[in-house]
Structures are given as structure tokens and as C-alpha cells.
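Try this one yourself first.
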């Protein structure tokens, strides 16, 4: 089918074959070419989920530590720090 989009060739290595075999158990009516597309979609969704979880954990860590160590810095700490910055 003609397309202006990039195409990719994938060699069925043992890892790819194993993933396709697992996908075939989940979606038994699909040909292997369609299974590959499904695997890409599922993998992309998994990566997005991992990024969201990581960002949420980072945000929670920053929020939980916010203001906890105020006594470690003098009131003029930032002023002194900025004196070293180039103008």
C-alpha cells in the first residue's frame, strides 16, 4: 500500500519471535504483522505510563521536601549566592 510515511523492516530475532508468540496468545486471530503493530502500541503505552509514574514520584518527592530544610540556609543565602553570578 503506498504511503508517504516511513516504513521499517524488523527481523524476527528470538526476542521478537517470543514477543510475537505472546501477542498471538493474547490476540489469536491477528496475523503476525498486525501483532507487531499491537506490540508497538502496547509498548508505547507502557513507556508513557512509566514516564507518568516517574514524574509523579519526582513531583511528590519535591513537594514532600519543600520547606523542610529552611533552617539550613540563612535568610540572605540567595543574595550571597547571586553575588557570584556574572552580571
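Now uncover the answer:
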Amino acid at each position: 500500500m503506498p504511503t508517504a510515511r516511513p516504513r521499517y523492516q524488523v527481523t524476527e530475532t528470538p526476542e521478537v519471535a517470543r514477543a510475537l508468540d505472546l501477542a498471538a496468545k493474547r490476540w489469536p486471530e491477528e496475523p503476525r504483522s498486525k501483532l507487531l503493530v499491537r506490540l508497538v502500541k502496547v509498548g508505547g503505552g507502557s513507556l508513557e505510563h512509566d514516564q507518568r509514574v516517574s514524574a509523579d514520584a519526582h513531583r511528590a518527592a519535591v513537594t514532600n521536601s519543600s520547606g523542610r530544610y529552611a533552617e539550613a540556609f540563612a535568610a540572605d543565602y540567595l543574595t550571597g549566592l547571586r553575588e557570584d553570578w556574572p552580571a
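Discussion: The chain has a mean pLDDT of 93. The chain is about 60% helix and 0% strand.
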